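mind reviewing both lines:
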Amino acid sequence: MCKKAMKGVFTLGRHNSIMSEELKYEIAKELGVDDKVKNEGWGSVSSRDCGNIVTKAIEIAQRSIEK
């Protein structure tokens, strides 16, 4: 069962979470890869860009925890 932890992140268990599609697209847009995702799908996004998306999501999560 999922519990909403913060905007766009749903916790599944003690250590697992899933980023919402909305949050992923929001970050992709911020990083300038949203057109590639829309046209070719997530599989076309480079490993580097995926890593940058994860890094940005972690930063967002850390800021929300600090509030």
Observations:
- The chain has a mean pLDDT of 80.
- Helices lie at 21-31, 34-40, 47-66.
